[in-house]
Amino acid sequence: MRPRDFIFRLGSTAVVWALLGLSAVYWGLLLTEPRAPILPQAAPAVPQIQSAAIAAWLGAPTDSPAPGAPAQAGRYELRGVIAQGSAGVAVLSVDGQPARPYPVGALIEEGVMLRAVGARHAELAADRSGPVLQRLELPLPDSRLPEGMALVPAQR
Question: Same domain for 126 and 63?
């Protein structure tokens, strides 16, 4: 064996043993590191509906409405609904005024409150347990195309 081969084998063996030693030290430190106990995670909290943020997102003013007369047919217009279980928010326009958000249970006017909301409706009542004074429905979306647009059949 030539001296050059001997030195090469000796050097490569030393490098391999050094890497093996560093690996053993790394894993030894990693395995002996104290660990915090694993605690069970709590269920995630259900986010609360923030009607002011929804109103800002929809572009409605956020100031509170002035009290008025009791419910009359045609005075209230439902502009949007966000229903979440028994909670929710309805975006209502009263007497043609800009729409405002009302959470379930909120007083809209004197003697009129938002009793409940559904996927496409809102119910107004005098109080939580009273009869429904008015049920407002969202209008169905307009499925017509804007003027100047047309559907073109796909080429086969």
Answer: yes
- Residue that the structure tokens 């169905």 belong to: 140
| Residue 74 dihedral angles phi and psi, to the nearest 5° | 90, -10
Confirm whether 149 is domain-assigned: no
Residue 46 φ then ψ, to 5°: -75, 125
Task: Report how far apart, in Å, the C-alpha atoms of 27 and of each of 17, 23, 32 are.
Answer: 15, 6, 8
pTM of the shown model: 0.47
Per-residue tens of pLDDT for the chain, all 156 residues: 688 888 888 999 999 999 999 999 999 988 888 777 776 777 666 666 676 766 666 666 545 444 444 445 678 999 889 888 778 899 999 888 899 999 999 999 888 999 999 888 999 998 888 888 899 998 777 667 667 666 667 665
User: Rounded to the nearest 5 degrees, what angle is found at the Cα of 77, between the Cα atoms of 134 and 53?
Assistant: 110
* Structural domain harbouring 79: 51-137
Query: Is 142 within the bounds of a domain?
Result: no
